[in-house]
Amino acid sequence: MEPQNCGVSDRRIRGPVAVLTLLMFAAGTGAASAETQPPGPIPVANLTPFVQTRLDPGVPRPLRGDVGAWSLDATLSYGNTFIMSDNVRSHLKARGERRLLDAADVAALDASGEDYYYLDANVTRMTLEASVQVARRLAGFVRVPLFGQLHHV
């Protein structure tokens, strides 16, 4: 089976990513001072296909700046998931050759009467986050995830 495009095409995401990158570069070109602190931990998104079906606000970035200060962050994540059940692995070894799964393979797995699974997925996600420091220990944020191509077999 050929991989299918289930998400946003590369062309549709390149323009906004380029504009956002330029804006963030321009906003961050101010002179750094000795008081500049590291931004804190880098958020790592869980990109497994099972999590993509759920609303997950993730962990907000640490509070920084004075009350009323705004920040704009972007993160780019790429993930690959490849899993298969033991009976699929045994079937593929028994075939004796490397090739894409076809209708005959699916029929053989169906005939076994056992449950089976086979998943190979790539996910690219850019997350944009705008936050404002509302009070000394309170901030509000909005996070928008943009997904790239999701290929599945």
Could you list some keywords that capture this structure?
single chain, 153 residues, alpha+beta, three-stranded antiparallel β-sheet, two-stranded antiparallel ribbon, 4 helices, elongated, disordered N terminus
What is the gist of this entry?
The chain is α+β, with helices and mostly antiparallel strands and about 150 residues long. The chain has helices spanning about 10-25, 50, 85-95, 105-110; strands at about 5, 70-85, 120-135, 140-145, 150.
Description:
The termini are close together. This protein is 27% helix and 31% strand. The strands form two sheets. It has a three-stranded antiparallel β-sheet with strand order 2-3-4. A two-stranded antiparallel sheet has the order 1-5. The chain has 153 residues and is an alpha+beta fold. It has four helices and five strands.
Topology:
Layout: E1 4-5, H1 10-27, H2 49-52, E2 70-84, H3 86-95, H4 103-111, E3 118-135, E4 138-147, E5 151-152
Antiparallel strand pairs: 1-5, 2-3, 3-4
As a percent range, the share of strand residues is 25-35%
Q: In whole angstroms, how far apart are the ends? A: 6 Å
The tally of helices reads 4
Shape, principal axes of CA atoms: elongated
Order of helices and strands: EHHEHHEEE
Radius of gyration: 22 Å
Q: Spans with pLDDT under 50 lasting ≥5 residues?
A: 1-8
Largest sheet: 3 strands, antiparallel
Largest sheet: spatial strand order: 2-3-4
Could you tell me the number of beta strands? 5
Query: What is the overall pLDDT average?
Result: 76
Structural class: alpha+beta
Helix content: 25-40%
